[in-house]
Amino acid sequence: MKNIKDEWVQIALDLTSGLSSRDRFERLLSTIRHALKCDASALLLFKNQYFSPLATNGLDSDVIGRRFAISQHPRLEAIARAGDIVRFPSDSDLPDPYDGLIANEERQLQVHSCIGLPLMVNERLIGAVTIDAFDPTQFDKFTNKELRIISALASTSLHTALLMEKLENQSGENSNNSSFERSSDNSVEMIGESLAMQELQANINAVANTELSVLITGETGVGKELVASALHQRSSRSQQNLVYLNCAALPESVAESELFGHVKGAFTGAISNRKGKFESADNGTLFLDEIGELSLALQAKLLRVLQYGDIQRIGDDNHIKVNTRIIAATNKTLSDEVKNGDFRADLYHRLSVFPIFVPPLRERGNDVTLLVGYFAEKSRIKLGATSIRITPEAITLLNEYSWPGNIRELEHVISRAAVLSRAQHYDSDLVLTPAHFLIKKEEKTEKNITHQTDDSQAENTKDLRSATDEFQANLIKKTYQEQHQNWAATARALQLDTGNLHRLAKRLNLKD
Ligand SMILES: Nc1ncnc2c1ncn2[C@@H]1O[C@H](COP(=O)(O)OP(=O)(O)OP(=O)(O)O)[C@@H](O)[C@H]1O
Ligand SMILES: [Mg+2]
Fold this sequence. Notes:
By secondary structure, the protein is α/β, with parallel strands linked by helices. The chain is 43% helix and 16% strand. The longest helix is centred in the N-terminal third of the chain and has 26 residues.
């Protein structure tokens, strides 16, 4: 340990320096790599039975986006429960969460060295450091005492970072808005570290804990619903209901009753009193999804509620006071709808007091890689596979694609690729290569989309069915963009019945 002492001193000094947490964590891992001569290491945050990587060294780039449930990973579970460093026997048959994920290595992690350092603060587990090496005797020369020093330094480093975040966020009075805080069931976790996502997170944090109405806009599949739940979770209403209403799925005849409720006998079939969504969301949040689809008549009624804070059940003369916060979402450009006379200007202004734009995936840089890791781990669990690796060529391909269907499309693409790989190889170690992805490098620009139909099919001998599917999908995507993302107009342009287009688009995974 003598030769490495200086490095540990440096780590201890780093703790008090002005480095960002990320830099500090990375420095810690590169020091560990240097000192212990390991092939891979990771610093993980522990929360609600999940480990989330905060920094990695020597691991594939998508690992940062993965979330490891301890119930799914016996090694991580052992580390979480141990209370002290864990040395796994080199021939341990417990699967390693990083099997196949050591950067630039095809090797499987069969016989290898693996150490887990739980990071504790006041006897509470806050994270872990994992250290792997291909050489099965690599860590024999280090004593437990030495490893505990690393553990202590890493704990302090992580604990300091968490405290700093808390302090920085105190002005917002809300501890939920930390970028380290990650939800237990992943319901609100938004994966992504790009500038566009940081900006989005900052906007969410700015408005969450106010009473303002929020209008969430953005293309299909960008995560608008996720943003809505984040807003609710981070608000003072988080203990109350978040009530969801999809305005597009509401037949005119029941919409009013859904929103405002009715009293017995108000109309044929109203056999008892019934609360509407507004009342269910009293003191909580009402999420009006696809608000652009609301009829003009209901827009007028909604405006009234926003102005006076009370509602009337159908068939009832009494007014009921409600304290409901409205969050609305749409993938339409509402200002255009206003111009066309399809959306009331006054309602638009009320709703868009605080507009939040959710950026398309193609503007989120390397977040694609993190999301690939995130969904790959989910697919692995779903398929009961031991490991899942995405080759660097596949990562490049996925990063070059333009993702018109955004995160939802990426989720489907990964899940389909995993199923395909599983079916082809009957192997529980899945490897996703470009061949498993039915997307094309060329799709990044408009120009290439048009070229693609003649060139790429020739170079790529696929069966007729998938070639036809691909051609149809591309034509639909292109027309959809040309028609300003309006499905009805796309159907007209392609001379298809709207219903048939919807079904076709669904089958081709272009929409849900
Ligand atoms: N940053 C993210 N990290 C992880 N998962 C995400 C992220 N953003 C979106 N998702 C997932 O992608 C899918 C689509 O997201 P969501 O339903 O919120 O999109 P949307 O904008 O409401 O789409 P639409 O306009 O079609 O209704 C969901 O399964 C959601 O959980
Ligand atoms: Mg949605």
